[in-house]
Amino acid sequence: MELDITGARILWETPINVPILGQLKISETMVVSWLVMLLITGACIWLTRDLKEENISKRQALAELIVEKANQFVVGNMGERFRYFVPFVAALFATSVLSNLISLIGLRSPTADLSTETAWAVVVFIMITAQKIKTNGFGGYLKGFTTPIAVMTPFNILSELATPVSMACRHFGNILSGVVINALIYGALAVASSALFGLIPGVVGDVLSKIPFLDVGIPAILSVYFDWFSGCMQAFIFCMLTVMYIANAAEEVKIKKTLYSRRTLLWIFRCSQKVSH
After folding, report:
1. What pLDDT, on the 0 to 100 scale, is given for residue 270?
2. Where exactly are the structural domains of the chain?
3. Does the structure show a pLDDT above 60 at 169?
4. DSSP labels, the chain
5. pTM of the predicted structure, to 2 decimals
C-alpha cells in the first residue's frame, strides 16, 4: 500500500512561465477551497431565501439562530462598537469548520496546507495593525515599538510578527497531525489485515489478504476526535484569537496612555517636592 503524506497534489499548471510568478499551479488545496466557498455561498443563499417577519420557516429560524450566536460571540468578546466584525468572523469560522470537516468525505482538507492558514493569519494581522493605527495614529503605532525603552524595539517587532506566525502554525499543526495520524493508522491496519488474512491457506487467503477489512470501523472511532472535535475546536480557537487580538489592539493604546499619564503625574509630584524643599 502506498502512503503519500507529502502534501497537496498539483492538478494543473500553465504551460508557459508568467513573468515574475513563473508557472501558475492549481493544487488540490485550491480546488477544495473553492468547493468550500461554493458550499458556504450556496448555504447562505438557501438560508436567506424568502425571509418573512411573521410565521417564519424552520430554515429562517436556523438562519436567525446562526446570526444571533455570531453576534453574541463577537459583541460579547469585543464590545458593541466592534459589531461590524460579525460577518468577517462568521465567514472565517464557517470556512475553517467546513475546511476541517471536508476530509470526512475523502477530500484533502485545505487546512492541512500551511498556505491556507497563512493567508487567514495575514488578513487578521492586517486588521490588527489597521486597528492600532486607527486608534493611535501611524506615528503612535511606530512609537509603540520603542516602549518601554528603545532597546526593546527589536523584541517588540519580533513579538508583533509572532502573532500571525503562531496563529497559522497552531491551526495548521493540529489539522496536519490529524491527517498524518489517520493516514498512518489506515496504512498500519491495511498491512495488519493483509498479514492476518494471508495466514489462510489457498486462494481464499490470497483474495482476502488484498481486502483491508480492518480499515472498516476502527478509523471511524478516531475520526470523532481528529475530524469532528479537533476540527471544530481549532476553528473556534482561531476565531477567538482573532477577536481578542483585534480588541486588544484598540485597548492597548488606552492602557499605555493611562500608564504614561500616571508616570507624568508621579514625575510632576516628585519635582514639586524637590522645589518645595
Report:
1. 58
2. 10-276
3. yes
4. -----S---EEEE-SSPBTTTBS-EEEHHHHHHHHHHHHHHHHHHHHTTT--SSS--HHHHHHHHHHHHHHHHHHHHH-GGGGGGHHHHHHHHHHHHHHHHGGGGTPPPGGGSHHHHHHHHHHHHHHHHHHHHHHHHHHHHHHGGG-S-GGGHHHHHHHHHHHHHHHHHHHHHHHHHHHHHHHHHHHHHHHHHHHHHTTS-HHHHHHHTTS-GGGSSHHHHHHIIIIIIHHHHHHHHHHHHHHHHHHHHHHHHHHHHHHHHHHHHHHHHHHHHHHH-
5. 0.76
